[in-house]
Amino acid sequence: MNAFSGWPPEALTFLEELEETNEREWFHANRPRYEEHLARPTRALGEALSDFGKVKVFRPFNDVRFHPGPPIKEHVAIALGYEGGGGSYVQLSLDGLVVAAGLHDPARDQLDRLRRAIDESRTAAVLTRALHTAGAAGLELGQPDLRRAPRGYSVDHPRIELLRHRRMTVHRVEALAPWLHGPEALERIRALLEAAAPLVAWLRQHVGPSQLSRTR
Questions:
Q1: CATH number, domain at 156?
Q2: Which domain holds residue 189?
Q3: Closest Cα partner for 200 from 138, 144, 130?
Q4: Per-residue confidence of the chain (216 residues) as pLDDT tens digits?
Q5: How many domains does the chain have?
Q6: Residue 101 located in a structural domain
Q7: Is 214 contained in some domain?
């Protein structure tokens, strides 16, 4: 596999045309362009970042049976390392480059462990430092998911803002720019993932994978 050196400018041209004509017939006719300009570089990016965990490259097709909308995804994306209970995500679309990390969709047992770890002051202090490291690199913590304290926790809890999060994720959106087409793309993505690595490590240690995954 070729080393990742950015997505070519033709990748954005393809996405622009896809947004205008999002039909399976058009996509199949232009599949070689998709493979060359989007899929192949994205797989190379995953290979270059494989030290962050197991790589998943998302398929281009939406399952419109369950998620009504266009048949073809208007982005390319990879996930890294989610087998450990927390991981990273990179997505390119016409809206920009998204680099994110954390735990996006916790199962019930994961959410319980997350809240207990936030409730404990010593483990929460490590989380706070991890979030500060991510924030210093320009990664933003998502907004709280709950308007009030979760059941079993006081509204006066010293870490109520963290307890209101079901998802513990940080992200940064980079505007489309020429650096995406060269080696600097890998450098910037890796720097952001490294800044988020303490958060991912904390999640893997204190939350871990769901034990309910086989029955969900």
A1: 3.30.930
A2: 9-206
A3: 130
A4: 579 999 999 999 999 999 999 999 999 999 999 999 999 999 999 999 999 999 999 999 998 777 778 999 999 999 999 888 899 999 999 999 999 999 999 999 999 999 999 999 999 999 999 999 999 999 999 999 999 999 999 999 999 999 999 999 999 999 999 999 999 999 999 999 999 999 999 999 999 999 885 544
A5: 1
A6: yes
A7: no
213 assigned to some structural domain: no
CA distance readout (Å), 163 to 39, 87, 103? 38, 20, 14
What is the C-alpha separation between 84 and 82, in angstroms, rounded? 5
User: How far is CA 179 from each of CA 48, 58, 175, 182, 194, rounded to the nearest angstrom?
Assistant: 17, 23, 10, 6, 19
Does 21 reside within a domain? yes
Asked whether the whole model's pTM tops 0.90, one would answer yes
